[in-house]
UniProtKB/TrEMBL annotation, chain B:
NCBIfam families: PPR. It comes from Sphingobacterium griseoflavum. TPR repeats lie at residues 209-242. This is Tetratricopeptide repeat protein. The keyword Kinase does not apply. It comes from the Bacteria. Residues 1-28 form the signal peptide. SUPFAM superfamilies: TPR-like. Keywords: Signal, TPR repeat.
Length: 725, 253
């Protein structure tokens, strides 16, 4: 075959001429550039024609793209997509060089989770399993907190107390709805030994021991927001222990709805017989409670959750209150209902509506005190949340109505409560309207997050003279979070918070409290190690209704400085050590003189060692601290009309101190699979060594002699549960 | 000689023109590079590692990805490459290297963008990481994996890999802890999803094979051979040479 150069040129010419229409077609392209919100070019963005997804291209390193091949169309609808960014559809015009497409970053889950969790901010998140595997909790959600450095609880109750503040300054929420008195078997000052929450209904808890975001109101010293289950596995759980029997049913009603129902009954017989020495102060108790939690995903954008609870409880225990020792009988019936509704209005805008109604009736009988109370609480909140890029803003309106009344008799003189004491009528009606609006925002950029929260009330309260508007206050809070690297965070936070105390039989007052806080928190989290350090300062104004110390409860100024260090280390595959140390300097002011608070503890060590292998767990927990402080009565002065001796206190308030507190607990559990079901056996010994930890001082009627009241001695508890799938 | 040269020139020109013809109208593939079709490249390198008993190809891709400008996309594929590399080391009995390689991948996803795909991969890697963990951390890791996989689905309800991750987790959870009750539904849901919610050559499309093999294994375990055979037939039509499917065939005979 002979082909010369001219022929070659002719063939090439004809090929090019023949292909011209196709090449021209290629040149009339749909072109443009894809950039992010900061106008930075995005490479590797897939650009595909919606109607013909085989026609696609990718953007180059400068964000440019060119789509050809659509023979006649002058406009075409194109889909832009890139991992980490929201996909976007846009109309492109052929030949236009001005097509700039902006892709927003992926919708973050705060959009759909903002109501469920604020844990990415400054909280500590505890899951259900954290509660079950907690060495000191006994599977109780609120007791689980006591192992952590930030818990400054010193009275073996379940009421959360954070960083030296009294329990009534902190608040417990369920799905962002406040729950007053979150404990069972509550005593005369409102504190109790177990929470009212069934751990099986809990998904997680967000704990804010320091400066919580002002999305939450009526809390002065931290809070806990309990989130109920997000999903369940069909199962039935039956449980039996030496003090309780119960059943729980989890059912998926459809792909988008589930329900949980439970009932428990607590009885005293075997527990008290076995622990007659360790629980000598406890005469009898019985509790029956039922609960219900249901979740319904109405659509991709709507969710509904219902939670209901009812409890009927009664307890008799020997206790000492204001120098009087006797049988304390208390009974309560209470029920509440919570509804949460969440709706995504768009990918940036969300709405939440939370409602609850709580009502209860109780009676307390302690020597000459015989008081019946009723209470009801209504809560409604409406929240709107907007998010764009690193900005997250939430605003809302909240109304909380708290009403209670007390009727009965009580001793005329606080120190005189015996059979022949003078009594007086106790009658009190309390009403509290809290109407507040708030604005809370965070902005994240690279490694920094900035937050600002503002909350303002509409003054609705009347003062003692009946003048409306005596409760005008403004709360604010801010923090800066520095993500040092993937394993370390540093948060500097400050805020002013307000909350109302809840009246109880011992302290019949509804006072407005203010707390100013400053905190620096450091967190290091690695695979096997986590380390936390916190430094904080607080100034509290207002009175506390949960204090055991009568004189101290009158103080209206408290200052607290503290340091917390804690480390959790997993080692040798089967071991975990949780160790924490806290140091606190807390004082209060009365008439310009400063005194140590009763819980002013120079040190508090908490250590727990756990071994877990082959579904067998054993843990030893040790708590060590100095005793709490108290004001010693040095003498008594007989008051004829009181028919009793009036205490004469030592000069220095809280100038005396109880003996050091040492406690060692042992917890053992074993999980045994039986076919497709699970049997759980557990055995706990609280205060294993039977240490006689002093709780209080009991005086003779004329205050000439005294002896100590002690915390629980050695207490054995065991039981089993069977989960059937 | 001259004619040969002319013929040679003609051949080159025709090839050039034909290349021009095919390339230009195809849409000016301006973004061609290491990330285009990256999943196949990593999967091939993973397979290659077992043939050569060395993860050289995987490590080469890892190096290439590290050289790219950092983005959610590069983080994702780097994490995926680490994940497969970890699987390789584990199968070779080097648990320490497997764990350390897996950790590198998880760190990337932890600090990076929170997309549906990132959550799905993170949840999958967290589930796998449990085997290297202290017993006391395992439950917590499983809980976090569930949370991340659920987030993945909430962000993109059509994400096959989100359902797959939850299905695998349920499949490997012992029955006495409630495992195995949702496996079938979740894996069927995964199979009903497209490989990619949005077609994109740089985005992940893995998971369908794993969903098939696990669902078939589930039916075999439940002794429901009829359903196992039905899904085996469907899967082998799609992946006739997949060794995991082939290894399941003996249980179906």
């Amino acid at each position: 075959m002979i082909i010369d150069c001219s022929l070659y040129l002719r063939i090439c010419y004809r090929l090019l001429i023949g292909l011209c229409p196709l090449l021209t077609l290629g040149q009339q392209a749909f072109e443009g550039r894809v950039v992010d919100a900061n106008k930075h070019p995005l490479s590797y963005v897939s650009v595909s024609v919606v109607a013909h997804d085989s026609m696609s291209t990718l953007t180059d390193s400068a964000g440019y793209f060119s789509l050809t091949g659509m023979s006649s169309a002058t406009e075409v609808e194109v889909l832009f997509s890139l991992l980490g960014y929201q996909s976007k559809q846009a109309m492109l015009r052929r030949g236009s060089k001005e097509s700039h497409v902006l892709l927003g970053e992926s919708q973050t889950l705060q959009t759909v989770e903002v109501w469920r969790s604020m844990k990415d901010l400054t909280s500590i998140n505890l899951g259900k399993l954290d509660i079950y595997t907690n060495p000191i909790a006994g599977a109780d959600a609120l007791n689980a907190l006591q192992i952590y450095a930030y818990s400054s609880n010193v009275d073996e109750t379940a009421n959360p107390s954070f960083r030296g503040s009294e329990a009534d300054r902190s608040r417990v929420f369920i799905n962002s709805v406040p729950i007053n008195s979150p404990v069972r078997n509550s005593q005369i000052n409102g504190v109790g030994n177990f929470s009212i929450f069934n751990t099986e209904l809990i998904q997680s808890m967000d704990v804010f021991p320091g400066n919580p975001p002002l999305i939450y109101g009526n809390t002065g010293a931290g809070l806990i927001d309990i989130k109920t289950s997000e999903s369940v596995k069909n199962s039935t759980q039956l449980s039996l222990s030496i003090a309780s029997v119960g059943a729980l049913i989890n059912r998926n009603l459809s792909q988008d709805a589930f329900t949980q129902v439970y009932a428990n009954h607590q009885f005293d017989g075997p527990l008290l017989k076995l622990n007659s020495k360790g629980l000598g102060f406890l005469q009898s108790f019985r509790t029956t409670d039922v609960g219900w939690n249901s979740n319904w995903k109405v659509s991709d954008a709507d969710r509904l959750n219902f939670y209901a609870y009812y409890i009927d409880e009664y307890a008799e225990l020997t206790s000492t209150i204001n120098f009087s020792n006797g049988l304390n009988q208390s009974g309560k019936r209470r029920g509440f209902f919570i509804m949460n509704y969440q709706k995504s209005l768009s990918d940036k805008l969300n709405l939440a509506l939370n409602s609850s109604y709580d009502m209860g009736k109780s009676r307390i009988d302690f020597l000459q005190i015989d008081v019946s109370s009723t209470s009801s609480t209504l809560f409604n909140s409406l929240l709107l949340n907007y998010q764009k890029e690193g900005l997250n803003v939430t605003t809302g309106l909240e109304y909380n109505l708290q009403q209670s009344s007390m009727q009965g008799v009580g001793p005329t003189f606080y120190y005189s409560n015996h059979d022949s004491s003078q009594t007086q009528v106790v009658q009190g009606d309390f009403g509290l309207h809290i109407l507040e609006s708030f604005l809370h925002g965070t902005y994240s950029s690279n490694r920094m997050t900035y937050s600002l929260g503002l909350r303002k009330n509409v003054p609705l309260q009347h003062d003692a003279n009946g003048i409306k508007g005596s409760d005008n206050y403004f709360s604010f809070q801010s923090y800066i979070k520095w993500k040092i690297n993937t394993i370390q965070n540093l948060v500097l936070s400050a805020g002013r918070y307000h909350n109302y105390t809840e009246p109880n039989v011992m302290y019949q007052r509804q006072a407005l409290n203010q707390t100013d806080q400053l905190a620096l928190d450091y967190v290091l989290k690695q695979k096997s190690t986590s380390f936390n350090a916190s430094l904080y300062a607080k100034r509290e104004q207002g009175m506390s209704n949960t204090s055991y110390e009568f004189l101290e409860s009158m103080a209206s100024q408290r200052e607290i400085f503290g340091l917390e260090l804690s480390v959790q280390q997993n080692f040798w595959k089967y071991f975990r050590l949780l160790s924490s140390f806290s140091l606190m300097d807390a004082s209060f002011d009365i008439e310009g003189v400063r005194y140590s608070t009763s819980n002013n503890i120079p040190y508090f060590f908490k250590n727990a060692l756990t071994f877990s292998r082959n579904r067998f767990n054993i843990s030893l927990t040790a708590l060590n601290r100095p005793g709490t402080r108290y004001t010693r009565v040095i003498n008594g002065n007989y008051i004829p009309e009181a028919r009793a001796y009036e205490p004469i206190y030592e000069q220095q308030l809280n100038g005396s101190q109880l003996g050091a507190y040492h406690r060692l607990d042992l917890n053992i559990s074993k999980l045994i699979p039986i076919k497709n079901n699970l049997l759980t056996l557990y055995f706990n010994v609280n205060n294993l060594l039977g240490a006689k930890n002093q709780r209080n001082l009991i005086y003779t009627p004329d205050f000439s002699g005294s002896s100590f009241e002690h915390f629980n001695g050695n207490v054995i508890f065991f039981g089993a549960s069977m989960t059937l799938y | 000689m001259k004619n040969k040269l002319t013929l040679h020139l003609l051949k080159i020109s025709v090839v050039f023109i034909m290349a021009l013809l095919f390339v230009v109208p195809a849409g000016a593939q301006t973004g061609q590079g290491v990330l285009n079709g990256i999943e196949k490249k990593i999967d091939d390198a993973f397979g290659q590692a077992f043939v050569t008993k060395k993860p050289d190809q995987l490590e080469r891709i890892t190096k290439l990805l590290k050289e790219q400008k950092k983005s959610a996309l590069t983080d994702y594929w780097l994490a995926y490459a680490y994940y497969l590399n970890s699987l390789y080391y584990d199968s070779m009995g080097d648990a320490d290297e497997a764990e350390s390689t897996l950790s590198k991948g998880m760190e990337l996803l932890k600090s990076g963008s929170q997309s549906s795909e990132s959550y799905a991969l993170m949840g999958t890697m967290q589930n796998y990481s449990i085997k290297f963990m202290n017993m006391l951390s395992a439950n917590k890791a499983a809980e976090e994996a569930t949370r991340n996989l659920s987030k993945s689905i909430r962000l993109e309800p059509k994400n096959l890999r989100g359902y797959l991750g939850l299905g695998l987790q349920d499949y490997y959870t012992p029955p006495e802890f409630g495992g195995g009750t949702k496996t079938e539904g979740l894996l069927k849901k995964a199979l009903s999803m497209p490989d990619q919610p949005t077609k994109n050559p740089t985005m992940p499309s893995w998971g369908r094979k794993e969903a098939y093999t696990t669902l078939i294994s589930y039916y075999i375990k439940k002794k429901d051979l009829e359903k196992a055979k039905q899904y085996y037939k469907e899967a082998s039509a799609k992946y006739p040479n997949d060794y995991r499917l082939l290894s399941l065939s003996k249980d179906l005979l």
